[in-house]
Design a protein that fits this description.
581 residues; alpha/beta; four-stranded parallel sheet; 25 helices
């Protein structure tokens, strides 16, 4: 099993590190107003609360049909980056090849959209299969004759460069019939090609609306680890019961880290930080950026230990200077691809392909073409790409407006919703504490002009939003990332109107709101929580702040009796609340 950031030559038994994932039936939302990872934080809670025994699905039951229903042939598995979609695919292949599960199939053919991106000419399904499975050349006719015994897995639809073009008019029906890659795959998903075959497609939510969902028999959402499975993951990671329990207790005490650990890839990141940083005894991360900076430093430390020579380039540049150069090169690629909503790139740069450190943050796929081998790279996790993109924007010797591609002027609200997390990283990396860390451990020159420029912009924008009542959540997160008392003292708006409406709020969102209201001790003219799906627990946490509100809006939320009583208590206790909606 290729494990996140596996050291060169290191192999890990699948059975030792695979942790069961909670999978529930149900169609995932096709439209996301915000960054999918941030949306997921709250969505996971509601999914797991609705996951009654009848709705739980084990990987072995994915293709089982309920009595009286037509066979389950086409399955769509969705989940945010790092939640375990590819791990689920590996689990299916592992159990099938060991004759444990999925024995109703005679063959499973596994294709990844990363590989399919390399095809630029008309091709048949037969050719697609044989490109990666040449050993099947003499047997493919036999395999496809009885297609009801065949499962085809298409992993990573969101990484397909043609994912927006699957609504095609041309369909293929024969195995050796040639067409564009997108026509072959659409014909397969719609059942025009190999109509009896089962097909499993995995995708991040952002691309699901481009899949021909009318042909899908079952929608499955992977909702990540339960708290028990987080604990289990720690035991497997550390292979030491006492140490794992100690580390898990540290995470439970840090609400931010615990929230992130529900996503398996984050769980690994947190374990890596704890392992390298001696339990975080001196600097427990307080924000998302803190976690990623510590992760970067932990991996740089781990991979450069006793490898000073590997960080010297051919020109004899000193290791620290070369390290900065490599990190900024990764950051430039991450930034360019992120702004174009792309995740894949080709490896034609020696600094990338030959550097051991780079393999820490990138996954590589090598594909054999006639006469050459193509290397395709992606960051190990979408948020790693966003972090590196922000690192480039902050540490490159260019003004922010240039690295953000917004001409001479930029503003936080001008960044698209899918860059919410990138914006947080930007703010956290332009804080004094993280600039000092990067300077001390990697040698980056503190970007004081950028820090001051961003700080001035953040203060002016937040003050304006407080006074005109526009949507403010992204700015509250930027303030949380800064962790700067002097900045909050300087902010002090004329009036305080907090608009958080029409977005489902997560635990991290409420933390940002509470941090802001703790630092700004003013009367709140208006707080709008309309359509936020606010929970009773969140209402209880925010109750002290409601007492400072003159107007409070809670419309379009499903409040139970306990929540209504909490609101009634606020109404009774507050001396200043004039309107409650």
């Amino acid at each position: 099993m290729l494990y996140y950031n596996t050291r060169h030559g290191e192999k890990i038994l699948f059975s030792e590190h695979y942790v069961n994932l909670l999978i529930v039936k149900g169609h995932n939302s096709l439209e996301l107003k915000r960054h999918e990872l941030l949306t997921f934080g709250q969505q996971r809670i509601s999914l797991q609360q609705r996951a009654t025994e009848q709705r739980l699905i084990k990987p072995a039951q994915l293709f089982s049909s309920e009595a009286g229903t037509h066979p389950t042939k086409k399955i769509l598995v969705t989940g945010v980056a790092g939640i375990g979609k590819t791990i689920l695919v590996q689990k299916i292949l592992h159990d099938f090849s060991n004759c444990r599960e999925h024995q109703s199939f005679d063959f499973i053919i596994h294709l990844t959209f990363r590989d399919l991106n390399l095809i630029s000419k008309p091709v048949s399904l037969q050719e697609l299969i044989l490109r990666k499975n040449g050993h099947l050349a003499k047997h493919l006719d036999t395999i496809t004759e009885n297609d009801t015994k065949l499962l085809i897995i298409l992993d990573g639809f969101d990484e397909f460069k043609h994912y927006k073009g699957c609504d095609v008019d041309v369909f293929l029906t024969e195995l050796d019939e040639e067409g564009e890659v997108v026509e072959v795959l659409s014909s397969l998903m719609l059942g025009e090609l190999l109509p009896g075959a089962s097909v499993l497609v995995t995708s991040r939510p952002m691309a699901v609306s481009h899949i021909p969902v009318g042909s899908i028999d079952r929608f499955v959402v992977i909702t990540g680890f339960s708290t028990i499975e987080i604990c289990d993951f720690f035991q497997r990671f550390y292979q030491d019961k006492v140490l794992a329990s100690k580390m898990f207790d540290i995470v439970v005490a840090n609400e931010l880290m615990l929230t992130l650990c529900y996503i398996p890839a984050f769980c690994y990141i947190v374990c890596s930080i704890l392992k390298e940083n001696n339990c975080l005894s001196t600097a427990s991360p307080r924000t998302m950026t803190d976690i990623y900076v510590q992760y970067l430093l932990a991996l740089v430390k781990s991979h450069t230990k006793n490898r000073v020579e590997s960080l010297k380039d051919s020109s004899g540049t000193e290791p620290e200077e070369h390290l900065q150069k490599v990190l900024l090169k990764l950051g430039r690629i991450a930034n360019q691809k992120l702004m174009n909503q792309e995740t894949l790139f080709y490896g034609n740069d020696d600094d990338i392909s030959n550097c051991t450190l780079v393999s820490t943050f990138l996954d590589k796929t090598s594909v054999q073409e006639p006469g050459c081998t193509e290397d395709v790279y992606s960051f190990t996790h979408l948020t790693i790409q966003e972090f590196f993109a922000a690192l480039y924007s902050t540490m490159e010797d260019a003004c922010l407006s240039e690295t953000l591609a917004f001409g001479t002027e930029y503003s936080i609200e001008s960044l698209p919703g899918n860059l919410d997390l990138f914006t947080r990283f930007l703010s956290g990396l332009l804080s004094e504490r993280n600039q000092a860390l990067l300077s001390r451990h990697i040698g980056f020159r503190p970007q004081e002009d950028k820090m001051q420029s961003f700080r001035t912009r953040l203060i002016a924008d937040t003050r304006a939003l407080c006074e005109n009542g526009a949507y403010i959540l992204t700015h509250l997160h930027c303030l949380l990332e800064q962790q700067d008392v002097l900045l909050m003292q300087e902010l002090q708006p004329q009036c305080l109107r907090i608009n958080l409406s029409d977005v489902t709020l997560s635990t991290m969102d409420y933390n940002a709101v509470k941090h802001f209201l703790n630092e700004i001790q003013l009367t709140v003219s208006e707080m709008d929580l309309t359509g936020t799906n606010i929970t009773t627990e969140a209402l209880r946490e925010l109750q002290p702040y409601f007492l400072r509100c003159e107007k409070l809006w809670l419309g379009e939320n499903s409040l139970d009796m306990e929540a209504i009583k909490l609101v009634a208590d606020v109404l009774e206790a507050s001396d200043i609340l004039k309107e409650l909606g």
